[in-house]
Amino acid sequence: MSHQEHIKSNPTVRKSAVWVLVVGIIFVAINMRSSLTSVGPLVGLLRDDLHISNTMAGMITTLPLLAFAFFSPIVPKLARRYGIEVVIFLSLIFLTLGIALRSLFGSGTLYIGTAMLGLAIAVANVLLPSLIKEKFPTRIGLMTGVYSISMNLLGAIASGVSIPIAIGLGFGWRGAFGIWGVLSFISILFWLPQMRARKRERENIHQEATSERNHVNLWRSKLAWQVTLFMGLQSMVFYVLIAWLPEILKHQGVSVDESGWLLSIMQLALLPVTFLVPIIAGRMANQRLLVIITTMLYFIGFLGLLYGSSQLLVLWIIVIGIGIGFAFSLSMMFFGLRTETAQQAAELSGMAQSIGYLLAAIGPTLFGYLYDVTNSWTIPLLALVGAATLILIFGFGAATDRYVESSK
Question: What is the pTM of this model?
Answer without folding.
Answer: 0.81
